[in-house]
Design brief:
- The chain is of the alpha+beta class.
- The protein has a domain at about 40-90 and about 100-140: Immunoglobulin-like, CATH 2.60.40.790.
- It is about 15% helix and about 25% strand.
- It has helices at about 10-30, 90; strands at about 45-50, 55-60, 70-75, 75-85, 105-110, 120-125, 130-135.
- Strands 1-2-7-6 form a four-stranded antiparallel sheet, with no helix packed on it. Strands 3-4-5 form a three-stranded antiparallel sheet, with no helix packed on it.
- Mean pLDDT is about 80; it is low at about 30-35.
Length: about 160
């Protein structure tokens, strides 16, 4: 008979995974102040993209109605607030054998880059994705300079090339 110190490997691995999940929950969701959570139960993940004429912030807000999202700009800080409510089906459940989704109020702050035209911020929500557009001010947009040909063949009649 072979020696087997662990009879049910899958059960042991599941137990270890459950314990690790509980440990991370205690660290990340109870009293730890780390962005973007800052002591909250959850906050939507966000990406910031830069284009020639604007900045775009994409935040994942599945299950949150657009009317329930508030966006404020103060100084160089853009704040997104809202609440993800637990579905009615989940509220009536007698037990929750597995719970991975986060619910509750959130407040997410993002520092805007220099040159953002904060007075012209716009936002739209589609498919669980919040898209916040922050145009760049005219002073930071790249200026396109047209190059003029100095080829004598292209010069209009009566034009003489200046001496250098």
């Amino acid at each position: 008979m072979a020696f087997r110190p662990i009879q049910d490997t899958q059960q042991v691995l599941n137990s270890l995974q459950d314990e690790m999940n509980r440990m991370f929950d205690r660290v990340w969701h109870v009293g730890v102040s780390t962005p973007p959570l800052d002591g909250q139960q959850w906050a939507p993940p966000a990406d910031v993209y830069e284009y020639d004429d604007r900045f775009v912030i994409l935040a994942e807000v599945p299950g949150i109605d657009a009317a329930g999202i508030e966006i404020n700009v103060l100084g160089n800080t853009l704040t997104i607030r809202g609440e993800k409510k637990k579905p009615a089906v989940a509220a009536d459940a007698t037990a929750t054998p597995r719970s991975e989704c986060r619910y509750g109020r959130f407040c997410r702050t993002i520092e805007l880059p220099a040159g953002a035209a904060k007075e012209r911020v716009s936002a739209k929500s589609h498919g669980g994705l919040l898209e916040v557009t922050v145009p760049k001010s005219e002073t930071v947009k790249p200026k396109v300079v047209k190059v003029v040909s100095e080829d004598p063949c292209d010069a209009p009649s009566g034009y003489s090339r200046p001496a250098i």
